[in-house]
Amino acid sequence: MIVTIDGYAGSGKSAVAKELAARLGFSLLNTGAMYRAVGFALHRAGIDAFAGVRDAERITDLLADFTFAMPGHRILLNGEDLTAVLFTEAMGRAASKVATFPEVRAKLKAEQRRIVDDGDYICEGRDQGTAVFPDAPAKFFLRASAEVRAERRVAQLLQNGQPADYKTILVDIRFRDRQDETRSIDPLAKAGDAVEIDTSHLTLAEVVQRLWDVVQQRRSTASPAG
């Protein structure tokens, strides 16, 4: 069974997906981490993702050899564990940028479908219910106010011993929202049959419970009678 969780950066997708996967005994596919890994790999290869004109041919050649694996909560690219270097503000910006590249989206959608083939997965990202798994039996879309999301990010960074400026992060979140919503390919949007949840004033446990209830209902509906 495939369960998709899409939504805005900082809306709680990753934490909710992790908790729901553990509770259901499903595997977890963090697609945002895959885009971060691509951003990191391009940077390491000397490719400027923010250049005025991207080198699409070189990027396509590099992508051709990419194979992802996501054991546990780690992100492996061609067998190399990149988990420790991906979850920074810089990699978040890089992920949003490379997600606008058609060649990157095509490659990662194919990898995501390969990874979850015939498995039970919670698939978390921006386009899982709309573009990658449109036939998933349970879809969710999470949102929260930009101000709440900025507060959450500040708290997370400070907890990890990293510097954090609320105003800068708020501006960055709003910019990334616009970039995700307006990209020409697979823009961030709620699937028509997705359950939408505003997490602004809900606890993690409350959000997970709401998703759990829907998934259990969908599973019982899909089970053969008798």
Which key features would you list for this structure?
single chain; 226 residues; alpha/beta; five-stranded parallel sheet; three-stranded antiparallel sheet; 8 strands; Cytidylate_kin
Question: How do the helices and strands line up, and which of them pair or pack?
Answer:
Blueprint: E1 2-7, H1 13-24, E2 27-30, H2 31-44, H3 56-63, E3 68-69, E4 76-77, E5 80-81, H4 83-86, H5 89-98, H6 102-116, E6 121-125, H7 128-132, E7 138-143, H8 146-159, H9 166-182, E8 195-198, H10 204-222
Parallel strand pairs: 1-6, 1-7, 2-6, 7-8
Antiparallel strand pairs: 3-4, 4-5
Protein model, in words:
This protein has one domain (2-209): P-loop containing nucleotide triphosphate hydrolases (Rossmann fold, 3-Layer(aba) Sandwich). The protein is built from ten helices and eight strands. It has helices at residues 13-24, 31-44, 56-63, 83-86, 89-98, 102-116, 128-132, 146-159, 166-182, 204-222; strands spanning 2-7, 27-30, 68-69, 76-77, 80-81, 121-125, 138-143, 195-198. The strands form two sheets. It has a five-stranded parallel β-sheet with strand order 2-6-1-7-8, sandwiched between helices. The protein has a three-stranded antiparallel β-sheet with strand order 3-4-5, with no helix packed on it. The radius of gyration is 17 Å and the shape is globular. The relative contact order is 0.21. The mean pLDDT is 93. One of its GO terms (biological process) is pyrimidine nucleotide metabolic process. Belongs to the cytidylate kinase family. Type 1 subfamily. Residues 3-216 form the Cytidylate kinase domain.
